[in-house]
Amino acid sequence: MMRNKDKYSIAVRKPDNEIEVVVRESRLITEKHPWLNLPIIRGIVNFVDSLVTGISTINYSASFSSSSAASSAF
Fold this sequence. Notes:
three-stranded antiparallel β-sheet
C-alpha cells in the first residue's frame, strides 16, 4: 500500500502470479471539519483513519489469498 494526500494504492499478487493494482480516493475528515485539526484531536483522528485504511487494505489483500488457500488445503 502506498498513500498520498488524496489517493492510496494497493498492489496484491494473485495466486496466478499476476499483480492486481487498485487506486482509491482518500479524503481526510480534517478537511471537512477544521476543528478536528487541533493538535491532540488531529493525532487521534489520523490514528483512527490509518487503522481503518490499513484494515480495509489487509481485508482486500486477504480476499485474494483465501480462495487459493481453501482449495489447496487438502
